[in-house]
Design a protein that fits this description.
By secondary structure, the chain is an alpha+beta fold. 20% of the residues lie in helices and 31% in strands.
Length: 362
């Protein structure tokens, strides 16, 4: 046997041993509880996601659906807050398994997940054949998993893939914290806070009705493409007015938002606030679509158990915030800031030339 033949035999023997070792290792991994894909919860191409369904165990759920124009809708009715959806998509793309749950704790964790988790269904376009940028035979795929409570170190969440037996601790690499708040099943946390979004060129009429002093009421009407008239409560035009203040007012409707939904108000609290309406703002666009904003005072809540107040300095109403309802929908009360509305709730005399009123509500 020559040297060349011996060398080839040695190489083949080593190769065979390596193959055997590789097979043994792979088989051993399959029989352990640590065989998993760290990215099995993730959908890497979020552009292919078409809808996301999130539900808790108490009847709360949201369905987020991507529209043709790229916007997202909540429960087929409301425009979603873009930032919140973008944050969720970022989590869905990057969610990773940090580690399996310890064997001794799995039974308890599975019980927690069965009673206190949010079910997540992510629907996305997938392809039977993917060769680089070549994709063939598109179909709709789905990942379903359960996101549970945070871990004790608050750096992860317990999670379980549907159909799986073993729970994991998941996280978002590079993010210090737990990710469960991004998977909210509450509709109010996804619905846009926008009240009206109109360019000045699309505004036909604005009416501000003051219920405390009718002399402060006013109407702004489009005169032509470039100018508006301001009328008092008797439909009398102001001969001259401060144009800059008028356009400051109208420009606020380009993106007017409330702060948050006023949830969990009792019937008594609702009845009380409905008796404290101080203004209506009615905006009509050039296509005659109407948006009505009704403004109600918010009473100050005093902590008399822990503080003593001097009566002469106590203000009955909150100077920073107020309640509002949109288009007479009393089932949905929102909270707004005076800071946002200050230029559109001013009295008629605010628009007089040389008026000394500053746009801060009093």
């Amino acid at each position: 046997m020559n040297k060349s033949t011996k060398k080839n035999i040695i190489i083949l023997t080593i190769a065979a041993l390596l193959i055997v070792i590789t097979i043994v290792v792979l088989l051993a991994r399959r029989t352990t509880t640590f065989d998993y894909d760290s990215n099995q919860f993730a959908v890497k191409d979020t552009n292919e996601i078409t809808k996301i369904f999130i539900a808790d165990n108490y009847g709360k759920s949201v369905l987020l659906e991507r529209q043709v124009n790229g916007e997202w809708k909540v429960n087929k009715e409301f425009i979603a807050i873009k930032k919140n959806v973008d944050d969720l998509l970022n989590v869905i793309m990057n969610i990773a398994i940090r580690e399996p749950v310890a064997y001794s704790a799995r039974s308890n964790v599975n019980k927690w997940l069965a009673t206190g988790s949010n079910k997540v269904e992510v629907y996305y376009n997938d392809y039977r054949i993917k060769l680089g940028k070549i994709k063939w035979w598109k179909f709709q795929n789905k990942k379903t998993y359960y996101i549970g409570s945070p871990t004790q170190d608050s750096l992860g969440n317990y999670a379980l893939m549907e159909g799986g037996k073993d729970p994991f601790i998941v996280c978002m690499p590079g993010f210090r914290g737990f990710i469960s708040p991004y998977y909210s099943p509450f509709e109010s946390e996804w619905k846009s806070h926008n009240i009206v979004r109109l360019k000045i060129s699309k505004i036909k009429k604005v009416e501000v009705i003051d219920y405390e002093n009718s002399e402060n009421s006013l109407i702004i009407e489009r005169n032509d493409e470039r100018t508006f008239n301001i009328l008092d409560k008797n439909q009398q035009k102001l001969a001259v007015y401060d144009t800059a203040k008028l356009f400051d007012h109208l420009s606020e409707y380009r993106d007017l938002n409330f702060e948050f939904f006023a949830e969990n108000l009792t019937k008594k609290e609702k009845d009380s606030l409905f008796s404290m309406k101080f203004k209506d703002i009615i905006i009509v666009d050039t296509e005659n679509n109407k948006t009505k904003i009704s403004l109600f005072y918010m009473e100050n809540v005093l902590d008399t158990a822990n503080y003593i107040y001097m009566e002469e300095f106590i203000e009955k109403f909150n100077r920073d915030k107020f309640y509002a309802i949109i288009n007479d929908n009393k089932e949905e009360i929102v909270v707004c800031q005076y800071f946002v509305f200050d230029r559109i709730i001013q009295p008629l005399r605010y628009y007089y030339l040389n008026s000394d009123i500053v746009p801060i509500y009093k």
